[in-house]
């Protein structure tokens, strides 16, 4: 929205993900790639659910646990420092993964969806947010190195929507219920990030 602060926009985006996952009180949510813990805290405050986050980053894990303690939500939120393929067997009512599938890689995407299906309750919902590569350039893109792959997301690969759909149908029983393109908002996000960076640079 015009003149909206980055913080307010971020909270609105998190609420959108929670709403799409249809999270309710009593649900147990799995967050694959839980980052700095903002989505976990927002989900519990918004719904009263139980929340488990998974990250490979020790720094993110430590920070997220501290934020949860500060919010006094330890009874609702826990984080695991492990690979998503090493999550102990459990069935979750919803899985949310925001900005993580880009790190999975083209070759391992089928395995990602197979794992998600194994963790999800029979009537559960999987919600993904990711940056996608254009379909017509995907094969060329995934085989070359660029600035983002080299310096921002080493080893990462922005999937095309077609690649996500093919991996999903090949390795799981998931079916797509809804797709929303929020890409047009990204320009404004980048401008806010740039302004914050320039304001706080040393």
TrEMBL record:
One MF term in the entry's GO annotations: methyltransferase activity
Any single Pfam family the record assigns to this protein: CMAS
CDD domains membership: AdoMet_MTases (cd02440)
Coiled coil residues, start to end: none
Name the UniProt record assigns to this protein: Cyclopropane-fatty-acyl-phospholipid synthase
Organism of origin: Triticum turgidum subsp. durum
């Amino acid at each position: 929205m015009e003149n909206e602060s980055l913080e307010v926009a971020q909270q609105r985006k998190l609420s959108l993900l929670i709403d799409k996952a249809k999270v309710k009180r009593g649900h147990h949510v799995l967050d694959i790639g839980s980052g700095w813990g903002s989505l976990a805290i927002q989900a519990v405050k918004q719904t009263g659910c139980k929340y488990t986050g998974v990250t490979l980053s020790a720094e993110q894990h430590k920070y997220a646990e501290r934020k949860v303690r500060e919010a006094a939500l330890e009874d609702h939120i826990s984080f695991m420092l492990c690979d998503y393929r090493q999550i102990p067997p459990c069935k979750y009512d919803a899985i949310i993964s925001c900005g993580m599938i880009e790190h999975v890689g083209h070759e391992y995407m089928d395995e990602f969806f197979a794992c998600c299906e194994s963790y999800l309750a029979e009537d559960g919902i999987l919600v993904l947010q990711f940056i996608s590569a254009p379909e017509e350039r995907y094969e060329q893109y995934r085989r070359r190195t660029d600035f983002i792959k080299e310096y921002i997301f080493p080893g990462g690969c922005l999937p095309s929507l077609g690649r996500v759909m093919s991996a999903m149908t090949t390795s799981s029983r998931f079916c797509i219920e809804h797709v929303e393109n929020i890409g047009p908002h990204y320009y404004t996000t980048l401008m806010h990030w740039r302004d914050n960076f320039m304001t706080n640079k040393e």
